Amino acid sequence: MRIERPERPEQPEQPERLGNGSDDATGDRSARRAVTVFPVLVLLAGAVGLLLPGSFTGWSESVPYLLGVVMFCMGITMTPEDFRGVAKRPWAVVLGLVAHYVIMPGLGWAVAHLLDLPPQLAAGVILVGCAPSGTASNVVTYLARGDVALSVSVATVSTLVAPLVTPPLTLLLAGEYLPVDAGSMVTDILKTVLLPVVAGLAVRLVAGRYVERALPALPWLSALTISVIVAVVVAGSADAIKSAAGLVFVAVVLHNGLGLALGYGAGRLGRLGEPASRAMAFEVGMQNSGLAAALATAHFSPLAALPAAIFSVWHNISGAVTAAWLSRRGR
């Protein structure tokens, strides 16, 4: 879930404003609406999957294709400016990338051990930690008056390197719980993440004039698609949710909360400044839980995808609340 940002001279210590050529107030309302409605949709989808699991019988095979739609939407919102932003501040982007792929996988492993999670759930929590940045992280950074340019750059790079980083990290940290076929996982991430993102970017470059008209609808298409993924995942493990949901919720809250705090701390430790540190918090603490759910369903089990489904709801709620607090503190 991304919001277009207007072209303007970069001011590293000032948070960029977003919007499709509209004023700041309109952009604020649009972004707040997206971040507010998204977790509600996911909650409703989870409830439908839990109450009517039979309605989604046989849908698990469609999860990778649904994720491909989300990643295509992400790719189609990208512009060459996103990649130029990486070249402008390589140190900040590298720090964000390293923090993301060190803090969240490590926290996933630590939380799984701390709570003594069963193997399926432990592998699911670790897999969430090994996923790239969340699709709504730049929107939440915007609401927090953070450095949106840095947020977009880190999210873009973390997604592009996911095929090379996520499988070996999952093998290293989750291999003690369940067998991990890292080679097959690389192939799946290439097909469901990298190829759709590149295809979306190509469409944007070739047919940018026509794509501009569809951009406002893309966040909602992504939100609806992720909601369907959550419904399918929850339906697949509906029988086990009543006994495991409470424990998984505690794991998700710890994982996400510590990720937000340590991400912010990494930015301050790297002397990136307050706006950039806020961006780091959300780039580290918010994960692409749709990818984690798809990989868990394909490589482990529907139960292993439960942490990703709950993370999909919680990290958007916690992100929006944290953003509101940071924005108010900034004023």
UniProtKB/TrEMBL annotation:
<keyword id="KW-0812">Transmembrane</keyword>
<feature type="transmembrane region" description="Helical">
    <location>
        <begin position="91"/>
        <end position="115"/>
    </location>
</feature>
<dbReference type="Pfam" id="PF01758">
    <property type="entry name" value="SBF"/>
</dbReference>
<keyword id="KW-1133">Transmembrane helix</keyword>
<feature type="region of interest" description="Disordered">
    <location>
        <begin position="1"/>
        <end position="29"/>
    </location>
</feature>
<keyword id="KW-0472">Membrane</keyword>
<feature type="transmembrane region" description="Helical">
    <location>
        <begin position="148"/>
        <end position="169"/>
    </location>
</feature>
<feature type="transmembrane region" description="Helical">
    <location>
        <begin position="62"/>
        <end position="79"/>
    </location>
</feature>
<feature type="compositionally biased region" description="Basic and acidic residues">
    <location>
        <begin position="1"/>
        <end position="16"/>
    </location>
</feature>
<feature type="transmembrane region" description="Helical">
    <location>
        <begin position="121"/>
        <end position="141"/>
    </location>
</feature>
<dbReference type="InterPro" id="IPR004710">
    <property type="entry name" value="Bilac:Na_transpt"/>
</dbReference>
<feature type="transmembrane region" description="Helical">
    <location>
        <begin position="35"/>
        <end position="56"/>
    </location>
</feature>
<protein>
    <submittedName>
        <fullName>Bile acid:sodium symporter family protein</fullName>
    </submittedName>
</protein>
<dbReference type="InterPro" id="IPR038770">
    <property type="entry name" value="Na+/solute_symporter_sf"/>
</dbReference>
<dbReference type="InterPro" id="IPR002657">
    <property type="entry name" value="BilAc:Na_symport/Acr3"/>
</dbReference>
<feature type="transmembrane region" description="Helical">
    <location>
        <begin position="189"/>
        <end position="206"/>
    </location>
</feature>
<feature type="transmembrane region" description="Helical">
    <location>
        <begin position="244"/>
        <end position="267"/>
    </location>
</feature>
<feature type="transmembrane region" description="Helical">
    <location>
        <begin position="218"/>
        <end position="238"/>
    </location>
</feature>
